[in-house]
Amino acid sequence: HCKKRTSSREPARSTLGEGEMTVSEGMSAGPVDARTVLARQDRIPSWSLPWWHLVVIGIGYFFTFFDIADIGYGMPAIAAQFKLTGSEATFVALAVGLIGYVVGSIVIGSISDRVGRYKILLVTIGITALGSFLCATATDMWTLSLWRFLTGVGVGADLNLVSTYVGELAPARQRGRISNLTFLVGILGQAVTPFVALALVPAFPFGWRLLFVVGGLIALIGLIARFQLPESPRWLALHGKPEEADAVVTRMEEIARSRGMTLPEPEPEDVSMARDAFPMRSLIARPYLGRLVLLVLMWFFWYIGNYGFLGDATTLLSGHGFAIADSILFLGVGAIGYPVGAIVMAVLADKLDRRLLILGSTCVWLIGMLLLGSLAGDTIVTIGSFLASFALGLYLQVAYTYTAELFPTRARASGFSLSDGIGHSGGVVGALLLPVVVTAGGFFLGFAGIGITGLIAGLIALFGPKTSGRRLESVSK
Predict the structure, then answer these.
(1) Are 378 and 331 in contact (CB under 8 A)?
(2) Enclosing domain of residue 461
(3) How many structural domains are present in the chain?
(4) How many CB atoms lie under 10 A from the CB of residue 19?
(5) What are the φ and ψ backbone dihedral angles of 66, each rounded to 5 degrees?
(6) I want to staple 390 with a disulfide (CB 3.0 to 4.6 A). Which of 33, 140, 164, 341 is the partner?
(7) Residue 232 Rama label (left phi>0; alpha psi -120 to 50; beta)
(8) What are the two backbone dihedrals, phi and then psi, of residue 45, each rounded to the nearest 5 degrees?
């Protein structure tokens, strides 16, 4: 059966453009075998959808990182207008959004394992756009908290799905690189946010509101563009829709041939096509439960420092003698490290073991935190900020890619959502604890502490399995 289908799927090289597809070429009249469809997809050596799809996917990341950063830059002005105490400001800035993030990641992310990636990708970015626009209308701490929660729901679910979706479309030998190129589009959101904030927040009493409006417009653009994306063929094949998966893969093959790629014979593997009405139930079986625990711990320790730095650094610096504009400027110049880190990781992601890359990123993070915590002059603070941002650019997408790789297609979004969602409780800990530690033990102790928790995350990753260059179905066996 497989040999017969293989021969029927090698038409002469097509002259179609990237956006065109014929259903007749590469599709047999008989029943479609899901395992063969997956083998055909996995033999394609490079990204084989229109390149602008990566930009469309990356816009979701762009909003995510813009949103994570904008509340931190806007909070000093918000706190002054709403007369918030330090603990109230931290609660609104980070805790509420993170709670929404966890809820959205776990609930909506797991739903995508049942109803598909594409539909939920539209829902999640729609929620984020709505939440951001509503944040701009907040009149007090309670309304802002409500809308931050709603935005967090969308952001948490969207971040989960983007990593899952890209991983299921990208070829095995370029999965890390493709994921990081998409991430590069997104991480620019964190790089440009401080400069947008610098132009708006100090200049206008309502500047923080404009910051949220900008975020909402970005998400709205992403929503409109996403209607052009295909469903994940892996999800379609697993959920009894091999003909639809066949159509997507046929389009990928046509684009690959139009770019001059020679496709080898597909090699179907005897992979499980089982699915569960309750995807999370798959995660309590071996080896997934152990992987889940490992990833939860890895993300928990990482997010302690991540959210402490992103949410509290501006406020803490301004509280130690720096003007708000100067604090934003130091972090803004340092934020150039985000895209630089993502570019470096795009080069390295498929050349080295992902576990070693994660560890190396956390070592850079520790150095950045030590320099930032030293407060040894404007130059040292800026260098520390750059290294911290550089480490974030290095770490985040390779760790997202690694997380999604460790779970089977039937529960990939659920596994990612639980790992990242529960792990985000570390962000709540870091955001609430860092100001307390800085007050009680000093600036250096606080930032050295979150540097060490980041390094612990890198050490934990070493205990996971190797994934680089392997087919997703092989990793998930």
Answers:
(1) no
(2) 52-230+277-475
(3) 1
(4) 11
(5) -60, -45
(6) 341
(7) beta
(8) -80, -15
Rg (CA), the chain: 22
Put residue 224 in one of left, alpha, beta given phi > 0 → left and psi -120 to 50 → alpha. Answer: alpha
Residues whose CB falls within 8 Å of the CB of residue 233, separated by 6 or more in sequence, listed in order: 37, 38, 41, 168, 169, 244, 245, 248, 249, 252
- Does 191 fall in a domain? yes
- Give the contacts of 149 (CB within 8 A, at least 6 positions apart): 96, 97, 99, 100
Instruction: Decide if pLDDT at 88 tops 90.
Output: no
What string of DSSP letters covers 269-301? --------SSGGGGGGSTTHHHHHHHHHHHHHH
Residue corresponding to tokens 């096509």 = 273
Q: What is the dihedral of CA 364, 368, 371, 373, to 10 degrees?
A: -130
Task: Kindly report, residue by residue over 127-167, the tens digit of the pLDDT.
Answer: 999 999 999 999 988 899 999 999 999 988 998 899 899 99
> Is 11 part of any domain?
no
User: What are the residues whose beta carbons fall under 8 Å from the beta carbon of 379, sequence distance 6 or more?
Assistant: none
Q: What is the DSSP string of 432-445?
A: HHHHHHHHHH-HHH
In a domain, 39, yes or no: no
Per residue in 310-334, pLDDT (tens digit) is: 766 666 665 655 555 566 666 667 7
**pTM attached to this predicted model:** 0.80
Rounded Cα–Cα distance for residues 185 and 59 (Å): 7
Question: What is the rounded distance in angstroms from the CA atom of residue 120 to the CA atom of residue 92?
Answer: 27
What contacts 143, CB < 8 A, 6 or more positions away? Answer: 137
Largest CA distance in the chain: 74
What average pLDDT does range 224-232 have in this prediction?
94
Identify whether 180 is part of a domain. Answer: yes
Instruction: Give the CA-trace dihedral at 350, 354, 358, 360, to 10 degrees.
Output: -70
- 239-271, pLDDT tens digit by residue? 889 999 999 999 999 999 999 998 988 888 766
End-to-end CA distance of the chain: 24
